[in-house]
Amino acid sequence: MIIISPVDGHLHVRDKEMLKNVLPYSASQFVAAVIMPNLVPPVVTAFQVDQYRREIISGLAPEFKYFQPYMTTYLTENSDPADIRFGFIDRVFIAAKLYPPHGTTNSDQGVGDIKKIFSVLAVMEEIGMVLCLHGEMPPSSKIDIFDREKVFLYEKLEPIIREFPKLKIVVEHVTTKEACDFVIEHNLQATITPQHLLFDRNALFSNGLQPDIYCLPILKRDIHLRRIQEVVKAGYKNFGLGTDSAPHLKENKYKPCGCAGVFSAPVAHEAYYQFFVANKIEHLYQAFASDNMANFYGMELPKKKLEIAQVENGWTVPDDFHNVRPLFAGEKLFHKAQIMI
Fold it and tell me: Is pLDDT at 130 greater than 90 in this prediction?
């Protein structure tokens, strides 16, 4: 199978030493990625985003210089509309990311009161800039963790759509039937992770707790998994590949209060593609893995080919990548993906 210009619509590559270690795995499978801004501290201004982009580009080995990082800026309740306008028009970043406070990794400065960023959203709507959403309510004893996404749609996202009907929106890592239906009804865009395409919440507790697939938003029950699979099999252009690959060192992932995040970068296409093969929809993979997200963002992608080759007897995924454990660690996969350089 040959895919032209695959793009990861949602990627974490961290910074510093972690960046150098994990970036090659994404660059060997994608020609571009939408890079998330939740560093410590988060990148909240055009200047900071530009510095981060330079760090990413400088961390690319010569054979991966084709890789294009499409940057996002981190929205806070104090984000400056003028800085947002400048950063987008000057092509420093392509989108802004909205996090629920304390809802996921490094989201402490996220937006609690949506009305406080209405002036920013008004500018974004005017200039055609994309809003990326971690679509969950902040942690609360009043909202079950499995309902945070559903509640967010109606308490937070619907008011945004009413106020800014022309705002371009990506609902990241959809996990529920309600989110899939909401995206289609309102003609939004959404990304789907490999873990949310392949597993329901039973997998998280199979043979004991499975930290490798613990992420936020958390895996949901089977009815939601089946709806996500249905929209992919139907070929909706509203949905595209976004790994949300999020590396954590083992000592942080495997501790009493372990970090949420799945490191899928080394096996991204191999993970997704097994679903397409099993359901005989390989012909839909080009759109899912590239066209849907590239067209929505208006990306100009390097014309590189990705080869996804069948491995007759399979290959075993290593259980360690620079002290980070990947998705499917120690398991056998039957395809191998690589950008043709």
Answer: yes
Q: Give this prediction's pTM.
A: 0.97
The span from the CA of 149 to the CA of 13, in Å, is 24
pLDDT at 257: 78
The tokens for 142 are 């009043």
Percent of the chain residues past pLDDT 90, beyond the cut: 94
CATH topology (fold) of 2-340:
TIM Barrel (3.20.20)
Distance between CA atoms of residues 289 and 236, nearest Å: 12
Told to judge if 244 belongs to the known catalytic residues of this protein, a careful annotator would answer yes
Segment 267-315, tens digit of pLDDT: 999 999 999 999 999 999 999 999 999 999 999 999 999 999 999 999 9
The catalytic residue among 8, 83, 212, 244 is 244
Helices of type H across the chain = 16-27, 46-58, 81-89, 118-127, 148-152, 158-163, 177-185, 194-198, 201-204, 222-234, 250-253, 268-278, 285-286, 292-297
For residue 109, the cross-strand partners are none
State residue 148 phi and psi, 5-degree precision: -60, -40
Distance CA 96, CA 134 (A): 11
Question: For helices 118-127 and 81-89, what crossing angle results, to 10°?
Answer: 20
- Classify 12 as helix, strand or coil: coil
Q: Residue 255: its pLDDT value, please?
A: 86
* Domain ranges within the chain, ordered by starting residue: 2-340
Structure tokens at 247: 């590396």
